[in-house]
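Sample entry as discussed:
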Amino acid sequence: MRTTRRFALRVNGADHLVEGEPQTPLLFFLRNDICLNGPKFGCGLGECGACTVQVDGIAARACALPVRLAESREIVTLEGLGDGDRPDPVQQAFIDAQAAQCGYCINGMIMTAKAFLTVNPAPSEAEVREALRYNLCRCGTHVEIVRAVMLAAERCRASETAEP
């Protein structure tokens, strides 16, 4: 017997009430109920990274995270980082480095990079490659993606030293 219940989700600073089965992946609610298109459905197994979001500041695979475990936690999607007028520095670095080709992996790359740079604001290129190694890109833009993360790290450090 399947049982559904309501879940209180806090996504991008807004509260949402959704209804479903406790084991249903968070990704389905983000895309279908809350209408967010940043996180993508890729493999459905948590292996490609296209569905990456941040949960309490940690990169998480929304396709493998049951909604019951996301309830009452801070969830941030690509849409929550910034927008077209004011992109997050990581988003802007990806734009400036032209780090997207088809764009399918970019959500996961940006969300993983953002979480990574929070804990390691001055990474080496090898550390960036290691942090992104479980995010798959079919188009082969890895060089540009690594360049974008390094650029974002540089800009974030520069903005921190420029602040009074």
Observations:
- The CA atoms of residues 52 and 60 lie 5 Å apart.
- The two ends are 59 Å apart (CA to CA).
- The mean pLDDT is 93.
- The helical segments are 26-33, 67-70, 78-81, 89-96, 106-119, 125-132, 142-162.
